[in-house]
Amino acid sequence: MMQPISALVRRARPASSFSAIRRCLHTSSSWSAKPIPHPAAPGPPPGPPKPAATTPEERIARKQRQAELLKKGQSIKPNPAKPASALQKRFWKDVHVKQTPEGFQVLLDSRPVRTASKGALTLPPNKHQLATAIALEWDLLVSAQQALKQHYIPLTSLTSRAIDIQTADAAGDSSIRDSIVKIMMNYLSTDTLLCWAPERSMHDAVGLEQSEDRVESLREVQKRTAEPILKFLTTKIWPGVEILPTLEPDSILPTPQPQKTRDVIRGWLAALPAWELAGLERGVLASKSLLVGARLLVEWSPEFSHLRENEQSGGRFGIQEAADASTLEVTWQTAMWGEVEDTHDVDKEDVRRQLGSVIVLVNG
């Protein structure tokens, strides 16, 4: 019969050694946990700090720093051993707009700005303001390396996109146009303008939402903002179509649009001119809303000027209106909980910059 291991240990070791081993198991003393009370901070956090208004001296100093960077970029000498160092130099001194028989071109000294496909960036004769804005973009660059980043030259990249669509259409290639239409139709299924918040939720901060400054719920504000835009779209652009809210008051599952509505909108997108299609694509990607992008496009494009002839004078649908409609929920939440520095404020300005580029592109 096999003996237990404990009995074998007792026989193998003296009693004193065994007791020492047992004492080693009880050398640590126990400590009880001390709970630390969490301070209670009632109410929302304080609002973000507001930047102080710039003084003339600060603006002059900023322009001086910009001039120093331009001078430094022009004086850099490339290192032959490092080919990439050539991009750190600004190889042009002057930027100007030249009118040619084909249209306007932006010249860096004597060389025209080119598209990604290596063709000269040539703008239609009715887009002189756009050409001037593109020239200003390149005049503000301090190195050739910055020209490789689209956020430094947003109008140049957007114009290049429009020219690529126009060139593909002229060659009978509809692949670019079809891909853009497909992407924008996907945005219609979850359009920001139609995603209204539920009426009430157990997680709502009722004490903050129902304050003296807020007599409406978030859903009511979203509905009030969307109604005039939807009315314009369903009477001026797509007469007779029915556009449904994506979210019902008591559901988080998206409601699909009627097939007739999808067919009408898809046909309208497919028939847009190249410059309008490129502008709408930028507007949709910036606002996450096909409806807001379409409303902004029709308001500023000369192709749809006939739709604005009998419109009552109540202010134009511009950058601020499009940005407010597409970022309404973010504005609602940050008004309660505050902004995250270098995040919400940067996103706010970036949306306006991109929507502004749409107006400059189509209005010329």
UniProtKB/TrEMBL annotation:
Keyword field contains Transmembrane helix: no
Pfam families attached to this UniProt entry: ATP12
Keywords: Chaperone, Mitochondrion, Transit peptide
Comp. bias intervals (Pro residues): 36-51
Gene3D superfamilies, A to Z: ATP12 ATPase, ATP12-like
Any GO BP annotation: mitochondrial proton-transporting ATP synthase complex assembly
Highest rank taxon of the organism: Eukaryota
Disordered, as annotated region: 29-63
Gene Ontology cellular component annotations, sorted alphabetically: mitochondrion
Subcellular location: Mitochondrion
Region forming the signal peptide: none
The keyword Mitochondrion appears for this protein: yes
Family statement drawn from the similarity comment of this UniProt entry: Belongs to the ATP12 family.
Record-given protein name: ATP synthase mitochondrial F1 complex assembly factor 2
Annotated organism of origin: Aplosporella prunicola CBS 121167
